[in-house]
Amino acid sequence: MRKMSLAGKRILVTRGGEQAEEFAALIRGRGGEPVIFPTIRLVPHEDTAPIDRALSRLSSFDWILFASSNAARFFLARAAETGVSRPPAGVRVASVGPGTSRELLRMGFPADLTAALHTAEGLVDVLRSEGIAGKSFLLPRAFEGRETLPEEIRRHGGSVEEVTVYRNGLPEKDELTARSIIEKPPDVCAFASPSAFRNFFILLGEREASNVLSRSLLAAIGEVTALAVAKKKFAVDIMPEKYTLEGMMEAIEARLASHTPHGGPER
């Protein structure tokens, strides 16, 4: 039986849809209480022309790289709309982690490689074993994200074409949950993107959001999200080594087990 490591702890879930439910299930499985308050709404990128151009010459690439399950979902949904149902012969697919690989398999684009370390750096490492120099890579991505992967591919002699396939929009505000968060801040507030963090302030208001975060531990996935946090003069208390929901969960468990008081915003 799993140890109830989060018993009595309330964890803010800022993702929406299926991802919110997946994270909430992990929290409940450890005895915690998920506070679901979506701060982002994922939508397809308005300009589909770059995606369509890439799809029309998919066979010209050596690799298609997927650094998130969302990138896989939005890119492959557009691929299906344009009649592309599988990778062309000779084009290989690489995934940042098992969650992304599951999404790819579900949509008929099984991954040939999956990174052992579920980060951009881990994906580069596994690609280096296959050879990067002289290869052509297609990278479907979010409107806002880390530049590590394309930069590293180019540094190792590969060429990368980046296409934006989705962006983060602002969801409708859940007034009842917003009031509960303001009145009783969660023990941990978790954010997986800069937009999720910035939209928290838009939805709650600057003063209320700042007050909540000053009384909670702040968890963030990735350097880009951490940079957005720093710009607001807050400190990241929890940063997972693996940029996955499981990785975030493990980091939250470890931090809460340390019983170290929260330092609040940076001064």
List keywords for this structure.
267 residues, alpha/beta, Rossmann fold, six-stranded mixed sheet, four-stranded parallel sheet, 11 helices, 10 strands, 18% strand, globular, disordered C terminus
CATH topology of the largest domain: Rossmann fold
Number of domains: 2
Distance between the termini: 43 Å
Radius of gyration over C-alpha positions, nearest whole angstrom: 19 Å
* Broad structural category: alpha/beta
Number of strands: 10
The CATH class of the largest domain, by name, is Alpha Beta
Element string (H = helix, E = strand): EHEEHEHEHEHEHEHEHHEHH
Spatial strand order of the main sheet: 3-8-7-4-5-6
Helix content: 40-55%
Stretches with pLDDT under 50, minimum 5 residues: 263-267
CATH architecture of the largest domain: 3-Layer(aba) Sandwich
Choose one word for the global shape.
Answer: globular
Per-chain topology:
Layout: E1 10-13, H1 17-29, E2 33-36, E3 41-44, H2 49-56, E4 63-66, H3 69-81, E5 92-95, H4 98-106, E6 113-114, H5 120-128, E7 136-142, H6 148-155, E8 159-169, H7 175-183, E9 188-191, H8 194-204, H9 206-214, E10 217-220, H10 223-231, H11 245-258
Parallel strand pairs: 1-2, 1-9, 4-5, 4-7, 5-6, 7-8, 9-10
Antiparallel strand pairs: 3-8
Helix pairs in contact: 3-4, 5-6, 8-9, 8-10
Put the structure in a nutshell.
The protein has 267 residues and is of the alpha/beta class. 42% of the residues lie in helices and 18% in strands.
Task: Give a verbal description of the structure.
- The protein has helices spanning 17-29, 49-56, 69-81, 98-106, 120-128, 148-155, 175-183, 194-204, 206-214, 223-231, 245-258; strands at 10-13, 33-36, 41-44, 63-66, 92-95, 113-114, 136-142, 159-169, 188-191, 217-220.
- It is of the alpha/beta class and 267 residues long.
- A six-stranded mixed beta sheet has the order 3-8-7-4-5-6, with helices on both faces. A four-stranded parallel beta sheet has the order 2-1-9-10.
